[in-house]
């Protein structure tokens, strides 16, 4: 039903800096216009769902990127190349210092252990030539994601990007 324990919330770092007493967290939740308590007053939830923009914001430092036009060329029998994918990705970043690492993943090859948990959810992993970029900070990945998504909307086909996490 979307409720979270007040005791659990009180243990979170930012709340713990203010109080370790869960009754104090309860008092704050009772005064909130955004939160509601369950009947036992032990759990809290938002009155309204999270805003859509927050749901779309990456919370992981990983982005999955593939070239939709190369996906089409592969279906047509053309040879999609690794260098063109890597170049098209790296050309879009003014500050490559934000990027911690880049994996180029070929169809049919075994995924790195760190990425195997994403394979069921993202069919592109292991089936298409794609790249996974790991960023140094959440702010860097959010900027890159927004920039690439905007470009994807403008150009239609081209680089496709989804956050992993």
Structural notes for this entry:
By secondary structure, the protein is an alpha+beta fold. The chain folds into 2 domains: 45 residues, no CATH class; 110 residues, RRM (RNA recognition motif) domain (Alpha-Beta Plaits). 35% of the residues lie in helices and 21% in strands. It contains 7 helices and 7 strands; from the N terminus they run E-H-H-H-E-E-H-E-H-H-E-E-H-E. Strands 5-6-4-7 form a 4-stranded antiparallel β-sheet. A 3-stranded antiparallel β-sheet has the order 1-3-2. A hairpin with a 5-residue loop joins strand 2 and strand 3. The longest helix has 18 residues. The protein is elongated and about 60 Å long. The two termini are 23 Å apart. This is HTH La-type RNA-binding domain-containing protein. InterPro entries: La_dom_prot, La_HTH, WH-like_DNA-bd_sf, WH_DNA-bd_sf. Keywords: RNA-binding.
């Amino acid at each position: 039903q979307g409720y979270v324990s007040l005791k659990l919330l009180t243990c979170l770092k930012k709340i713990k800096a203010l109080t370790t007493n869960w009754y104090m967290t309860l008092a704050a939740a009772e005064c909130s216009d955004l939160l509601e308590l369950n009947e036992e007053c032990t759990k809290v939830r938002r009155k309204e769902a999270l805003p859509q923009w927050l749901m779309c914001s990456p919370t992981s430092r990983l982005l999955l990127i593939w070239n939709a036009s190369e996906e089409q060329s592969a279906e047509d029998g053309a040879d999609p190349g690794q260098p063109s994918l890597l170049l098209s990705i790296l050309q879009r970043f003014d500050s490559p210092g934000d990027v911690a690492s880049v994996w180029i993943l070929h169809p049919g090859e075994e995924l790195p252990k760190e990425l195997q948990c994403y394979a069921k959810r993202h069919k592109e992993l292991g089936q298409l030539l794609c790249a996974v970029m790991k960023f140094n900070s959440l702010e860097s990945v959010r900027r890159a994601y927004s920039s690439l998504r905007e470009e994807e909307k403008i150009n239609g086909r081209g680089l496709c990007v989804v956050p992993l996490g």
